[in-house]
Amino acid sequence: MHFHLPKPLHGWREFAGEVGIIVLGVLLALAAEELVEWTHDQHQLAEAREALRTELSYDAASLRAIAAQDPCADVRLMFLESWAKGNTTINSTHLASMTNRPLLYTLSTTAWEVTKASTIAARMPIKERLRYATIYDELDNEKGHVLDERRAWDLLARYAGQDTLTPEEGRTLQADLGSVRVRDDDRRFNTPSLLAKIAGLGVKPDPSFEERDPRHLCSPPN
After folding, report:
1. What does each C-alpha distance from 82 to 9, 87, 165 come to in angstroms?
2. HEC profile for 94-135?
3. Mind giving me the DSSP string for 33-51?
4. CB 189 within 8 A of CB 144
5. What is the spatial distance between Cα 175 and Cα 136, in angstroms, rounded to a whole number?
6. Mean pLDDT score of the chain, rounded to an integer?
7. Using an 8 Å Cβ cutoff, are 81 and 165 in contact?
8. Residues with Cβ < 8 Å from 208, sequence gap 6 or more?
């Protein structure tokens, strides 16, 4: 028994051409879809990078502003230590006021948290992702030191309004001031390295960041 394949109406050559056109059309459609998806991914990646750079620029400005207060903050601590030892008197009425302590800005890590929680971070080259991860790990650590330092300064508010201190209060205040210095040292130790790593990405501190003039801390509390 013999089987005969049906002949295309216009011949095998024409049939193959038509199939080729269909296949080419499908391939072009798939390529176009891939291009649209790739373009969308690149747009999201560019947005993420811009958000990360903006955030790091703010954090760099915050760290620089905090560090700029350190010399006068040291002077303020010296005044308070002298008061704690009974060697001088101060006006402690407004000791709890924000104007009588360094302004310790909160560092931001939101952009990185959002980026790494999505699929965007996975599209970054591994070296770039590792650089961001390293910087943000250090930022998260520094953020903890800043918060600890802020809490240590907050403890000094309990001495507000006291004209004189009892010996016991003086010793407690000296311990509280020691805690401030420890937290302060932790934060200061990490700042230069962190700023250098951010600068290594080509990110500069936000020029619009408004730093508070720290010179009032170089005087006794008032």
Report:
1. 106, 5, 11
2. CCCCHHHCCCCCCCCCHHHHHHHHCCCHHHCCHHHHHHHHHH
3. HHHHHHHHHHHHHHHHHHH
4. no
5. 32
6. 87
7. no
8. none
Stated as kind and residue range, the H or E segment containing 56 is helix 12-68
Structure tokens at 5: 């394949």
The answer to whether 177 and 80 have CB atoms below 8 angstroms apart is: yes
The CB-side HSE value for 172 (13 A sphere, CA atoms) comes to 10
Please list, in sequence order, all residues whose beta carbon lies within 8 angstroms of the beta carbon of residue 217, skipping any fewer than 6 positions away.
69, 72, 73, 75, 76, 100, 101, 102
Q: What is the pLDDT of residues 117-129, one digit of tens each?
A: 888 888 899 999 9
144, two tokens: 């903890």
Structure tokens at 125: 């080259």
Residue 22, Cβ neighbours under 10 Å: how many? 10
What is the structure's pLDDT at 202?
A: 95
Region 143-150: what's the mean pLDDT?
A: 96
pLDDT digits 0-9 by tens, 43-56: 788 899 999 999 99
Helix (H/G/I), strand (E/B), else coil: 207: coil
User: What gap in Å lies between CA 126 and CA 83, rounded to an integer?
Assistant: 54
Enumerate residues 6+ apart whose C-beta is below 8 A from 94: 100, 160, 221, 222
Measured CA to CA, the distance from residue 73 to residue 218 in angstroms comes to 7
Hey, what are 104's tokens?
Answer: 């310790």
